[in-house]
Amino acid sequence: MFDTMTITKAGASLCAALLALLLAGWASDGLYSVGTANHGEDHVSGYPILVADAETDAPAEEVVEVSFTDVYAAADAGAGEGLWRQCQACHALEQGVNGVGPYMYGVVGRAKHAVDGFNYSNALLAMDGDWTPENLNDFLESPRTYVPGTAMAYNGMRKIEDRANLIAYLATIGN
Ligand code: HEC
Q: Average model confidence (pLDDT) for the chain?
């Protein structure tokens, strides 16, 4: 069985973990967000927060809230061109050429489900708005989370830098 000390320690680590989660959630909720002026569509700006380790009192872990806006500002379209391979099986870049998915010509800034004659899923048809870089970032991170029920059978691109580079590349096509 556990002795009292073990239970106390376990309780303390749990509290520390909860506190860290709380802080991270708080920061990402945008309490610290600063309006950056471009296009009025950027939102969260992130700042690194230091989370002190409850047991040693030393700054232990740096939780960095990376803002997509910042990553996108430094994106490399050249690197994104290579990542486009992951999409090519289903999407063409040329205007009017649909495959398994709709063509990507001018997709950055394009209204969602705007390709005439493409048979979109009801899930995607139910969405409003444009494919801003921010929205594309969220969608490409996890298509099924952003559009539950989407017909796009793609698991998602994990690294925010990769997504930013790919979107920067797409922004050079037809914009
Ligand atoms: C396995 C095939 C497949 C792959 C791989 C794929 N897609 Fe798609 N994509 C689709 C389909 C199908 C749709 C339509 C989704 C729907 O109607 O729900 C779609 C829709 C989209 C849309 C919305 C277009 C619009 O007009 O609203 C974007 C943006 C998009 N894909 C980008 C990408 C990118 C970028 C990649 C590569 C990282 C990618 N897709 C990989 C099949 C795919």
A: 84
Tokens found for residue 60: 């232990």
The closest-lying atom of ligand 1 relative to the alpha carbon of residue 157 is 38
The number of beta carbons lying within 10 Å of the beta carbon of residue 149 is 10
Residue 18 tokens, joined: 């909860």
- 67 close to 46: Cβ distance less than 8 angstroms: yes
Nearest ligand 1 atom, CA 112: 27
- Name all contacts of 6-14 with Cβ < 8 Å and 24+ positions apart: 12/54, 12/55, 13/54, 13/55
| Phi/psi of residue 92, nearest 5 degrees | -105, 155
63-92 tens-digit pLDDT: 777 899 999 999 999 999 999 999 999 999
89 lines ligand 1 (CB under 6 A): yes
Instruction: Compute the distance between CA of residue 95 and CA of residue 135 in angstroms, rounded to an integer.
Output: 21
Q: Residue 88: CB within 6 Å of ligand 1?
A: no
